[in-house]
User: Fold Multidrug-efflux transporter from Paracoccus limosus.
Amino acid sequence: MILARYLPHLRATLALGLPLVGSHLSRMAIGVADTVMLGWYGVNELAALVIATSFFHILFFMGMGFGIGVMGLIATAIARGDEVEVRRSARMALWLSIGFALLVIPLMWHSGPILLAIGQAPAVAQLAQDYLRIAGFGLVAVLCQLTLNSYLAAMERTQVVLWVTLAGLPLVIVLNWALIFGHWGAPELGVRGAAIVAVFVQYLQLAALLAYAAWLPVARKYHLFQRFWRPDWAELRRVFLLGMPIGLTMLAEGGLFVGSNVMMGWIGTRELAAHGIALQLASITFMLHLGMSNAATVRIGQAKGRGDGQGMRDAGVTVIAVSVLWALLAVAAFELFPRQLVGLYLDATHPETPAIIAIAAGLLFYAGLFQLMDAMQVVGLGLLRGVQDTRVPMVIAVISYWLVGIPVAYGVAFGLGVGPAGLWIGLVVGLSLAAVLMMRRFWRGYARGDWTRRKPAV
Assistant:
């Protein structure tokens, strides 16, 4: 009986979510390729990439709320058969994504003094600015891709997102080999080479998604790009009010990790490099939970559009079960094979490699601890976004990550003298609090039917 009840939800969730997981993993694999290849190139370059991508992602997190927010809106509108609302929401999300990216690019151009002001080593700050002055121009492409991903995911056309993202991986590896190291007659550009490759591939992927969205027969009735230049101020305001809290939520969560990067930089360059490796390994496993969170947003949004409360609850249970199982597998890998996993990122002949492996392997113990809580907080966010609840989750995120997580990390690492492991203890505490509060809000409110009585979030 239970199997018969949940099996359709499991099939639908996996059909929708696995391609999203694959696309997130492919995108992460591109970051892994950059990290590994710059790790082979030099420790300073690796540390610069860690801090530069942290800076980039802070701005990306602030702008990604518009693209993420429309996923639930579009899924609900499609379930209601509201073609005009689909077009209005997606188009204004693209407007907001482009506008935000153009607004913040100058911050990346002048990032060097900012990085010095927050205590980064001069050599690392200069290399990070070199990277950001090129990579910053890719933010337009990345944010527009995110919006198109949501548009296609709401129509359950996630496979193309996977293939477009996956196609970028071998291209990045080949071009990095040429431009980072100077092979095949290309100039040796180090971190600047990695940035050039990233921007080039990002715009190629955006072009592919734009072409598919325009061609897709099922989407033609929405006329997404017809008179694209015409403003829709009411919908622009609606998407902004829905998306900005999501962006701030992502900023709060991302800021927890970026703050740990900055504080790890205060401890030392080797520690920062090791931290970046451990964090990226944890991020790889997180991609499944992020894909399931996206699937939850669509599935919950569809149920909301149909007025199906039981379907909403069953979809939520299914997504949570999948994420919990994956989290347990990730914990086992981190606890059993830490040195082998870290060793994949480093040149075994480099004199600093043994020290970095020792530090990073120790940090993976804590990465294993927060796997389950990290899964639950991001799935909880996905469930709440499906019912277009974004403001209270923003408050929860700020409290959990900045009023609890960061102070605990600083206090344990520096006040108690624990060092790098102390920063990761702070991550565990912040994520755990967020997970409990997000899940409590969904299951004690919306899953009981409160979504039928509450006013819209925007």
Notes: Residues 2-452 form one domain. The longest helix spans residues 2-41. The chain has a mean pLDDT of 82.
